[in-house]
Design brief:
By secondary structure, the chain is mostly beta strands. The chain is built from one helix and six strands, in the order ββββββα. Strand 1 and strand 2 form a beta hairpin.
Length: about 70
Amino acid sequence: MHGPADLSARIRYLDGTYEVLRPGAYVTCAVTGRRIPLEELRYWSVPKQEAYADGAAALAALGRPAKD
């Protein structure tokens, strides 16, 4: 059985905020694969609907195409 700290949240990323669609403790960085605790989530892309661990990861993602 998984505890709350083991669950990945499902998020809808919006401009300046996000909506939790499925509760969880973290999301995964689309660039680094690192777990990002929700209370530390600061960087994401609305068009790509993905999270980034930090500013460097967000910058690295700029040249990548959006997911289908």
